[in-house]
Design a protein that fits this description.
With 448 residues, this protein is an alpha/beta fold. The chain is built from nine helices and 19 strands.
Length: 448
Amino acid sequence: MKKFILILSFLPVWAAAQETVHRDAEIAEYVSKVNMDSLKSHINTLVSFGTRHTMSSTNDPKRGIGAARNWVMKKLKTYAKSTNGRMEVFIQNKTIQPDGKRIDRPTDLGNVVAILHGTDPNDKRVFMIGGHLDSRVSDVMNFKDDAPGANDDGSGVGAAIECARILSRSKFPASIVFVAFSGEEQGLLGSKMLAEKVQAENWQLEALLNNDMISNNRTSETNLVNTHQLRVFSEGLPQYKLDKKASNIRAYGMENDGESRQLARYIKEVGERYVDHFEVKLIYRNDRFLRGGDHSPFVEKGFPAVRLTEFNENFNHQHQDLRTENGIQYGDLAEFMDFEYYKKNVEVNISVLANLAKSPSKPENVRMETDKLTNFTTLSWEKPKTGNGNIGYYVLMRETDVSTWQKKFFTKDTVMKLPYSKDNYFFAVQAVNASGNESLMVIPKVLK
């Protein structure tokens, strides 16, 4: 069953037209291929390594972080065989020394990375999905005891593996990167290492979907159950070079429109388009109180990155020794995962990744005229340089106190004059192609 969203489109001559945003059949097919048995297999295998603590063994063939990352790499290389050399799989390694914090011995840090290269050599865009491979128990320095890490964060790694399994069979103009980070529990070490590589090598990273705990449905204290919402945490103000941007942000009221926040809005729109009876809930924070995630090192370097996580957290089943006390079983075991809910959350991820990778590039040089006192708003932009051939553009609009975009106006031109005051609304522009795949949104610069 297709979903259709009715959109009123204002053309420059004020002729009313109608456009529909609908499901791309190809993406709907990807979503339908997310398989619960496959997800269970990923999780059960990850749990079977006993512990995946960052400082656990790297040479034991059956137990520890080394065995786990070798299995992930082997799995991704299996998928790469069908790509005719387009998917590159490797482990990004570095030996880190004791830091007086959460590393007390020389440690082989390794991220498992798979790059599904885009088919357009001129399209340098990169979209990334990741979760952290390492696990822990109550004592963050305990690398010996079993730490199953089924949900935290086997679920995030399993999501990345499942997306790689399905998307590796297709061709996209842009590149998709699948990552299993190490060292998250010891201080976001693996994501810091990869963020440094991305920055040093000038990757055009336009989105990171960091999945961290996406399969639990029940709270620990109140036993509330939620199987229909997924939280997306996103930064509003850009941490990167904020001092240089603050005056313009303040002057035009753009505190809620950083690139990560726009990415979160994109995830909500596209995810809800392809996953029925499901809500992506925007959380206006970079992360939870007293917690951290692998998206943060990327945010700190100026890349759009968000955290996707379950709506409810059960603290009996994360960062806990395996034990039973007062009739309560503690520990992060697969039996506490809701695989139906988990499957929906993976479906959100794959729909967003595919829509991004199929989309045109973002419009260039988006501008808004402010040099005249008028109740109209005029926007202009330039055609994207690369991407899956755009046929037009959406101008997005929302009231200043509303969290998501409320209207989309379609045009094939590169200028649009709207009968709405720029004082009362926020605007953005995105490119769209014939199959309805939209680029990320671009907030206009102000022409004085």
